[in-house]
Write a structure and sequence with these properties.
This protein is of the alpha/beta class. Helix content is 44%, strand content 17%. The structure holds nicotinamide-adenine-dinucleotide.
Length: 262
Protein backbone atom coordinates (compact mmCIF):
# COMPACT_ATOMS: atom_id res chain seq x y z
CA UNK A 1 0.00 0.00 0.00
CA UNK A 2 1.22 3.49 -0.78
CA UNK A 3 2.08 5.65 2.22
CA UNK A 4 2.19 9.04 0.51
CA UNK A 5 -0.79 11.30 1.13
CA UNK A 6 -2.43 8.94 3.63
CA UNK A 7 -3.03 9.69 7.31
CA UNK A 8 -1.72 7.32 10.00
CA UNK A 9 -2.70 7.24 13.68
CA UNK A 10 0.29 6.51 15.91
CA UNK A 11 -0.29 6.06 19.64
CA UNK A 12 2.86 6.53 21.71
CA UNK A 13 4.17 8.59 18.79
CA UNK A 14 5.86 11.15 21.05
CA UNK A 15 8.67 8.83 22.18
CA UNK A 16 10.89 5.89 21.30
CA UNK A 17 9.64 3.42 18.72
CA UNK A 18 6.44 5.34 18.02
CA UNK A 19 8.41 8.55 17.49
CA UNK A 20 10.71 6.90 14.92
CA UNK A 21 7.59 5.60 13.19
CA UNK A 22 6.11 9.11 12.99
CA UNK A 23 9.36 10.48 11.53
CA UNK A 24 9.68 7.71 8.92
CA UNK A 25 6.02 7.88 7.89
CA UNK A 26 6.36 11.64 7.51
CA UNK A 27 9.51 11.24 5.40
CA UNK A 28 7.51 8.94 3.11
CA UNK A 29 4.92 11.69 2.53
CA UNK A 30 2.26 10.67 5.07
CA UNK A 31 0.26 12.82 7.43
CA UNK A 32 0.59 11.53 10.99
CA UNK A 33 -1.65 11.97 14.02
CA UNK A 34 0.27 11.44 17.26
CA UNK A 35 -1.99 10.19 20.06
CA UNK A 36 0.01 10.39 23.26
CA UNK A 37 0.04 11.80 26.79
CA UNK A 38 3.24 13.74 26.35
CA UNK A 39 2.71 17.17 24.75
CA UNK A 40 6.30 18.43 25.08
CA UNK A 41 7.87 15.38 23.42
CA UNK A 42 5.23 15.50 20.66
CA UNK A 43 6.10 19.18 20.09
CA UNK A 44 9.72 18.12 19.53
CA UNK A 45 8.62 15.59 16.90
CA UNK A 46 6.50 18.23 15.17
CA UNK A 47 9.44 20.66 15.19
CA UNK A 48 11.61 17.93 13.61
CA UNK A 49 9.03 17.14 10.92
CA UNK A 50 6.24 19.52 9.89
CA UNK A 51 3.40 21.26 11.69
CA UNK A 52 1.14 20.88 8.65
CA UNK A 53 1.75 17.12 8.23
CA UNK A 54 2.16 15.96 11.85
CA UNK A 55 -0.40 16.82 14.52
CA UNK A 56 -0.68 16.03 18.21
CA UNK A 57 -3.95 14.86 19.75
CA UNK A 58 -3.48 14.62 23.50
CA UNK A 59 -4.85 11.23 24.48
CA UNK A 60 -4.72 8.87 27.41
CA UNK A 61 -5.37 5.51 25.74
CA UNK A 62 -6.97 4.25 28.96
CA UNK A 63 -9.78 6.78 28.49
CA UNK A 64 -12.27 5.54 25.94
CA UNK A 65 -13.78 9.03 25.62
CA UNK A 66 -10.38 10.55 24.85
CA UNK A 67 -9.51 7.84 22.31
CA UNK A 68 -12.85 8.29 20.49
CA UNK A 69 -12.55 12.10 20.50
CA UNK A 70 -8.93 12.09 19.26
CA UNK A 71 -9.62 9.59 16.49
CA UNK A 72 -12.64 11.64 15.37
CA UNK A 73 -10.59 14.86 15.37
CA UNK A 74 -7.81 13.11 13.42
CA UNK A 75 -10.37 11.82 10.90
CA UNK A 76 -11.70 15.36 10.41
CA UNK A 77 -8.13 16.57 9.85
CA UNK A 78 -7.55 13.73 7.35
CA UNK A 79 -10.72 14.76 5.48
CA UNK A 80 -9.79 18.42 5.33
CA UNK A 81 -6.22 17.59 4.24
CA UNK A 82 -7.56 15.14 1.59
CA UNK A 83 -5.21 12.51 3.04
CA UNK A 84 -7.48 9.57 3.88
CA UNK A 85 -6.69 7.23 6.78
CA UNK A 86 -4.16 4.57 5.77
CA UNK A 87 -3.42 2.83 9.02
CA UNK A 88 -3.12 2.61 12.77
CA UNK A 89 0.10 1.97 14.68
CA UNK A 90 -0.63 1.20 18.34
CA UNK A 91 2.71 1.79 20.05
CA UNK A 92 1.69 3.35 23.41
CA UNK A 93 2.83 1.07 26.19
CA UNK A 94 4.18 0.76 29.72
CA UNK A 95 6.48 -1.81 31.37
CA UNK A 96 5.82 -1.60 35.14
CA UNK A 97 7.51 -4.85 36.29
CA UNK A 98 6.21 -6.61 39.43
CA UNK A 99 6.53 -10.12 40.83
CA UNK A 100 3.41 -12.30 41.08
CA UNK A 101 4.50 -12.90 44.68
CA UNK A 102 7.38 -11.16 46.41
CA UNK A 103 8.69 -9.71 49.67
CA UNK A 104 5.71 -7.35 49.80
CA UNK A 105 3.25 -10.21 49.22
CA UNK A 106 1.00 -10.87 46.24
CA UNK A 107 1.02 -8.80 43.04
CA UNK A 108 -1.01 -5.62 43.37
CA UNK A 109 -4.09 -6.23 41.23
CA UNK A 110 -4.56 -2.55 40.36
CA UNK A 111 -0.99 -2.46 39.04
CA UNK A 112 -1.71 -5.55 36.92
CA UNK A 113 -4.93 -4.00 35.57
CA UNK A 114 -3.12 -0.75 34.75
CA UNK A 115 -0.62 -2.52 32.47
CA UNK A 116 -3.47 -4.41 30.78
CA UNK A 117 -5.45 -1.17 30.44
CA UNK A 118 -2.66 0.71 28.66
CA UNK A 119 -1.06 -2.06 26.61
CA UNK A 120 -4.03 -4.24 25.73
CA UNK A 121 -7.33 -2.38 26.18
CA UNK A 122 -5.71 0.86 24.97
CA UNK A 123 -4.57 -0.94 21.80
CA UNK A 124 -7.97 -2.51 21.14
CA UNK A 125 -9.76 0.76 21.79
CA UNK A 126 -7.54 2.71 19.39
CA UNK A 127 -7.87 0.05 16.70
CA UNK A 128 -11.66 -0.28 16.97
CA UNK A 129 -12.15 3.50 16.88
CA UNK A 130 -9.75 3.92 13.96
CA UNK A 131 -11.53 1.17 12.03
CA UNK A 132 -14.75 3.15 12.13
CA UNK A 133 -13.06 5.45 9.59
CA UNK A 134 -10.49 3.13 7.94
CA UNK A 135 -13.19 0.72 6.77
CA UNK A 136 -14.85 3.60 4.87
CA UNK A 137 -11.91 4.95 2.85
CA UNK A 138 -11.86 4.30 -0.91
CA UNK A 139 -10.08 1.01 -1.62
CA UNK A 140 -6.75 1.17 -3.45
CA UNK A 141 -6.23 -0.82 -6.67
CA UNK A 142 -5.28 -3.51 -7.64
CA UNK A 143 -6.28 -5.46 -4.50
CA UNK A 144 -8.91 -3.19 -2.99
CA UNK A 145 -6.68 -2.43 -0.02
CA UNK A 146 -7.84 0.16 2.52
CA UNK A 147 -5.19 0.12 5.19
CA UNK A 148 -3.04 -1.62 7.75
CA UNK A 149 -3.26 -2.11 11.52
CA UNK A 150 0.09 -2.55 13.24
CA UNK A 151 0.22 -3.55 16.90
CA UNK A 152 3.26 -3.73 19.16
CA UNK A 153 3.88 -6.81 21.28
CA UNK A 154 7.27 -7.81 22.70
CA UNK A 155 9.64 -10.75 22.96
CA UNK A 156 8.13 -10.91 26.48
CA UNK A 157 4.98 -12.30 24.86
CA UNK A 158 6.98 -15.52 24.35
CA UNK A 159 9.62 -15.64 27.08
CA UNK A 160 8.64 -13.10 29.69
CA UNK A 161 11.22 -12.61 32.39
CA UNK A 162 10.70 -12.74 36.11
CA UNK A 163 8.60 -9.67 37.00
CA UNK A 164 6.84 -9.54 33.64
CA UNK A 165 3.58 -11.33 34.46
CA UNK A 166 1.45 -8.29 33.63
CA UNK A 167 3.57 -7.10 30.69
CA UNK A 168 3.70 -10.59 29.16
CA UNK A 169 -0.05 -11.04 29.63
CA UNK A 170 -0.69 -7.80 27.76
CA UNK A 171 1.76 -8.54 24.94
CA UNK A 172 0.78 -12.22 24.65
CA UNK A 173 -2.81 -11.10 24.12
CA UNK A 174 -1.72 -8.79 21.31
CA UNK A 175 0.10 -11.69 19.62
CA UNK A 176 -3.04 -13.84 19.95
CA UNK A 177 -5.35 -11.14 18.57
CA UNK A 178 -3.35 -10.68 15.38
CA UNK A 179 -4.77 -13.54 13.30
CA UNK A 180 -8.45 -13.26 14.31
CA UNK A 181 -8.32 -9.51 13.69
CA UNK A 182 -6.79 -10.08 10.23
CA UNK A 183 -9.56 -12.57 9.52
CA UNK A 184 -12.26 -10.12 10.68
CA UNK A 185 -10.85 -7.33 8.54
CA UNK A 186 -10.05 -9.17 5.31
CA UNK A 187 -13.48 -8.32 3.89
CA UNK A 188 -12.56 -4.63 4.19
CA UNK A 189 -9.15 -4.98 2.58
CA UNK A 190 -7.40 -4.16 5.85
CA UNK A 191 -4.33 -6.11 6.98
CA UNK A 192 -3.12 -6.65 10.54
CA UNK A 193 0.48 -7.11 11.63
CA UNK A 194 2.18 -7.25 15.02
CA UNK A 195 5.82 -6.49 15.76
CA UNK A 196 7.51 -8.11 18.75
CA UNK A 197 10.78 -6.34 19.59
CA UNK A 198 13.31 -7.48 22.18
CA UNK A 199 15.41 -4.70 23.69
CA UNK A 200 15.43 -1.47 21.67
CA UNK A 201 17.00 1.83 22.66
CA UNK A 202 14.21 4.09 23.92
CA UNK A 203 13.25 6.04 27.04
CA UNK A 204 11.51 2.83 28.24
CA UNK A 205 14.79 0.88 28.31
CA UNK A 206 17.02 3.88 29.17
CA UNK A 207 15.88 3.61 32.79
CA UNK A 208 16.90 -0.05 33.09
CA UNK A 209 20.00 -0.73 35.22
CA UNK A 210 23.18 -1.35 33.16
CA UNK A 211 23.38 -4.94 34.51
CA UNK A 212 19.94 -5.67 33.12
CA UNK A 213 20.77 -4.24 29.71
CA UNK A 214 24.05 -6.19 29.58
CA UNK A 215 22.23 -9.42 30.40
CA UNK A 216 19.73 -8.81 27.59
CA UNK A 217 22.48 -7.97 25.11
CA UNK A 218 24.32 -11.20 26.09
CA UNK A 219 21.19 -13.16 25.14
CA UNK A 220 21.34 -11.81 21.60
CA UNK A 221 22.95 -13.85 18.82
CA UNK A 222 23.56 -11.18 16.17
CA UNK A 223 23.78 -8.24 16.24
CA UNK A 224 24.80 -8.10 19.92
CA UNK A 225 23.28 -4.72 20.74
CA UNK A 226 19.90 -3.14 21.42
CA UNK A 227 17.83 -2.35 18.35
CA UNK A 228 17.58 1.25 17.21
CA UNK A 229 14.18 2.92 16.92
CA UNK A 230 14.56 3.39 13.15
CA UNK A 231 15.19 -0.35 12.77
CA UNK A 232 11.71 -0.79 14.24
CA UNK A 233 10.07 1.87 12.06
CA UNK A 234 11.73 0.39 8.94
CA UNK A 235 9.73 -2.76 9.56
CA UNK A 236 6.54 -0.74 10.15
CA UNK A 237 7.10 0.80 6.71
CA UNK A 238 7.63 -2.67 5.17
CA UNK A 239 4.44 -3.94 6.82
CA UNK A 240 2.50 -1.10 5.19
CA UNK A 241 4.13 -1.35 1.78
CA UNK A 242 4.22 -5.12 1.43
CA UNK A 243 0.70 -6.40 0.84
CA UNK A 244 1.45 -10.08 1.50
CA UNK A 245 2.26 -9.35 5.15
CA UNK A 246 -0.93 -10.10 7.04
CA UNK A 247 -2.06 -11.89 10.21
CA UNK A 248 1.50 -12.47 11.37
CA UNK A 249 3.86 -11.48 14.18
CA UNK A 250 7.44 -10.49 13.36
CA UNK A 251 10.04 -10.77 16.12
CA UNK A 252 12.76 -8.09 15.98
CA UNK A 253 15.28 -9.60 18.33
CA UNK A 254 18.69 -10.48 16.82
CA UNK A 255 17.73 -14.15 17.39
CA UNK A 256 17.70 -13.62 21.15
CA UNK A 257 15.62 -15.60 23.61
CA UNK A 258 15.30 -13.68 26.85
CA UNK A 259 16.78 -15.35 29.97
CA UNK A 260 14.52 -16.14 32.94
CA UNK A 261 16.22 -13.61 35.18
CA UNK A 262 18.19 -10.45 34.66
N1 LIG B 1 11.96 -0.40 23.83
C1 LIG B 1 11.90 -1.72 23.92
O1 LIG B 1 12.90 -2.37 24.21
C2 LIG B 1 10.61 -2.45 23.66
C3 LIG B 1 10.66 -3.84 23.55
C4 LIG B 1 9.50 -4.54 23.31
C5 LIG B 1 8.31 -3.88 23.17
N2 LIG B 1 8.28 -2.52 23.28
C6 LIG B 1 6.97 -1.87 23.13
O2 LIG B 1 7.07 -0.85 22.18
C7 LIG B 1 6.14 0.18 22.47
C8 LIG B 1 6.87 1.51 22.50
O3 LIG B 1 7.80 1.47 23.57
P1 LIG B 1 9.03 2.49 23.66
O4 LIG B 1 10.21 1.69 23.98
O5 LIG B 1 9.03 3.37 22.49
O6 LIG B 1 8.62 3.27 24.99
P2 LIG B 1 8.58 4.83 25.33
O7 LIG B 1 8.37 4.88 26.78
O8 LIG B 1 9.72 5.54 24.71
O9 LIG B 1 7.26 5.33 24.56
C9 LIG B 1 5.98 4.96 24.98
C10 LIG B 1 5.04 6.11 24.64
O10 LIG B 1 3.73 5.71 25.05
C11 LIG B 1 3.12 6.82 25.68
N3 LIG B 1 2.11 6.36 26.62
C12 LIG B 1 2.28 5.65 27.76
N4 LIG B 1 1.11 5.49 28.38
C13 LIG B 1 0.17 6.10 27.61
C14 LIG B 1 -1.22 6.29 27.73
N5 LIG B 1 -1.91 5.81 28.77
N6 LIG B 1 -1.86 6.96 26.75
C15 LIG B 1 -1.17 7.47 25.69
N7 LIG B 1 0.15 7.34 25.54
C16 LIG B 1 0.81 6.67 26.49
C17 LIG B 1 4.25 7.57 26.40
O11 LIG B 1 3.90 8.92 26.66
C18 LIG B 1 5.37 7.44 25.39
O12 LIG B 1 5.37 8.50 24.47
C19 LIG B 1 5.49 -0.20 23.79
O13 LIG B 1 4.26 -0.84 23.53
C20 LIG B 1 6.47 -1.19 24.38
O14 LIG B 1 5.86 -2.09 25.27
C21 LIG B 1 9.39 -1.78 23.54
Amino acid sequence: MKIENRTFLVSGGASGLGRATVIDLHSKGANVAILDLNQSLADEVIAETSASKVRFFKTDVTSSEEVAASVKAAAEWADSAKAPFGGIVAAAGVGNPALIYGKRGPLDLDGFKFVLDVNLIGTVDLVRNGLEYLTKVDPEEPDGERGVVIMVASAAAYEGQSGQTAYSASKGAIVSMTLPMARDLSRYGIRVMTLAPSMFDSPMTEVMPEKVKESLVRSMEFPKRPGKPHEFSQVVISCIESSMLNGEVIRLDGASRMPARL
